[in-house]
User: What shape does this take?
Amino acid sequence: MKILVHVCCAPCFVYPSIVLLQEEHEIAGFFFNPNIHPYQEYQRRLGTVQQWSSAKNIRMIYRDEYLLEDFLREVVFRESKSSRCLVCYHLRLEAAAKVAARGRFDSFTSTLLYSKFQNHEAVARIGAEIGERYGVPFYYRDFRQGWKEGILQSKEFGLYRQQYCGCIYSEKERYCHPLTEGKTAHCPPMETKVA
Assistant: This one.
């Protein structure tokens, strides 16, 4: 099959790309991630995807637009993490489906199906709904089974491995931990030094 793979980041692309290529699918990657913050992080992830895809000779399609304001407009009034994530999945999977339809791909999928930190069922459901709308089937595969293998391969290859999903909210959660569901995150106070 000719499959378009939405790529959130290189470490999550490693295992799915290896598996799909071993199965002799014709794959192309699609990088579009308006959620990534800050800009330096966006550039670092983009560069790491370029590093991996170039080394493995994988054709890539880059929608290299830093659309942070557009992303924030879509998620800013959503109170829960889960509702923000659903919007984020939808934005990226819809962009992938549009490219897959224009490029006459047999199907499209996403490296979001590899991450143990994403809502796997929601990604599958949203992908299937969007695929139906655009006439390109969503290729569902539980890539999480290769979680450890993907980590090992990405480390052996020396890929930059980020510490949060990419959005400003996940960056905050990395440092500030919620006290209980639905309450404001608790951030330790910053030390101030008086000269």
Summary: The helical segments are 10-22, 39-55, 68-75, 81-102, 120-134, 147-157, 168-175. Strands lie at 2-7, 26-31, 59-62, 107-110, 177-178, 185-186. The mean pLDDT is 85.
